[in-house]
Specification:
Elements: H1 2-6, E1 12-15, E2 28-31, H2 37-43, E3 49-52, H3 64-84, E4 89-93, H4 122-139, E5 144-149, E6 151-153, H5 162-171, E7 177-179, E8 182-187, H6 188-201, E9 207-210, E10 213-216, H7 217-228, E11 235-237, H8 239-256, H9 264-269, H10 279-285, H11 292-305
Parallel strand pairs: 1-2, 3-4, 4-5, 5-9, 6-8, 7-11
Antiparallel strand pairs: 8-10
């Protein structure tokens, strides 16, 4: 959104429930829901390019219904609304989780197949199913491109996101134990810039992996400690113990109404997708992700400036 404004585009945004982060921006707002086809048809009227980012992100293994409704059914409705309004281009935001992570001894790139049941989390399967719908629509004549970001972090994380919450907890010293493994993180601002470029120049039917830097949880904690001046956690929880405890932590989170971040799904993610290539996006779109330390520093500063990070708290 901010990238489009910076490029001089006239922006219309569909606000579902929250309008956090929209204040003061030169945009047109309208109400809508990806599960309400008529609201999409109205919102897309006159649009040249549609950026489809709406998704239900879940770290649970029992969330098939909601993931399917939003990530698959919602994508189907977006495609149909684009057709009804003769939208010139659809930029569909998929995910690295829609692709197989194996074989792990080779870089993940755009040639990896989409995941299929069984054994995958509802979110992964739903994003793969949504991406299949877009690929089929391209074969039927829709002008669309697909981008697959890795773990997106950065400023303007108003909700905050799952990893944003983890960063806040680490920055406040509320994480006494770190986990084994890591993940590939990419700056939201770099993803946005590349998405705008893809909307402008990418050939129809193209797809691009937008990766950043793989960072272990230990190294993440160390960098955050250097940024905040707080001591990093020194205890490391073995992966086997974490997996054994995950169901209990998930159950407690659901019982208290909190969004769980320590689940079997998140633990599995920390063990996958270590080597992800963004060579195609770099070659065709000039994509160059910024250093991860810069992203973490900017994100922590934004959280601090906006009151999400407070003083030291005992673990």
């Amino acid at each position: 959104m901010r990238a489009l404004i910076a490029h001089g585009s006239e922006v219309r945004i569909i606000a579902h429930k929250s309008t956090l982060g929209l204040k003061g921006l030169n945009i047109e707002q309208c109400s809508g829901d990806v599960n309400d086809p008529e609201s999409l048809a109205e919102a897309f009227r006159g649009a040249e390019t549609v950026f489809h980012l709406a998704a239900h992100i879940s770290l649970l293994m029992n969330d098939h219904g909601r993931c399917a409704a939003v990530n698959v059914g919602g994508t189907r409705n977006v495609i149909e609304a684009c057709r009804r309004n003769n939208v010139k281009r659809l930029v569909h935001f998929s995910s690295i989780h829609s692709l197989y992570s194996e074989p792990s001894d080779m870089p993940v790139d755009e040639t990896r197949p989409l995941v299929e049941p069984p054994g995958f989390a509802p979110y992964d399967l739903s994003k793969a199913a949504g991406e299949r719908l877009v690929r089929q629509a391209v074969k039927e004549g829709l002008d669309a491109v697909i981008i697959n970001p890795t773990g997106v972090i950065g400023p303007y994380d108003y909700r905050p996101s799952h990893f944003g919450r983890a960063l806040i907890m680490m920055s406040e010293g509320r994480v006494p134990v770190i986990l084994e493994g890591g993940f590939d993180w990419v700056d939201a601002r770099d993803v946005a810039e590349c998405a705008v470029k893809a909307g402008q120049v990418a050939p129809a039917g193209s797809n691009y992996l937008l990766s950043g830097t793989w960072l272990s949880v230990r190294d993440t904690a160390t960098i955050i400690s250097q940024i905040t001046g707080r001591r990093p956690p020194t205890l490391v929880c073995p992966a086997s113990l974490a997996r054994a405890c995950a169901p209990a932590f998930t159950a407690v989170s659901q019982w208290t109404g909190a969004r769980p971040i320590f689940t079997s799904v998140s633990l599995n993610a920390l063990a996958c997708y270590r080597d992800i290539s963004h060579a195609k996006a770099t070659r065709e779109l000039g994509y160059e992700p910024r250093p991860i330390r810069e992203t973490l520093a900017d994100t922590i500063k934004w959280f601090t400036d906006n009151g999400f990070i407070k003083g030291n708290k005992r673990p």
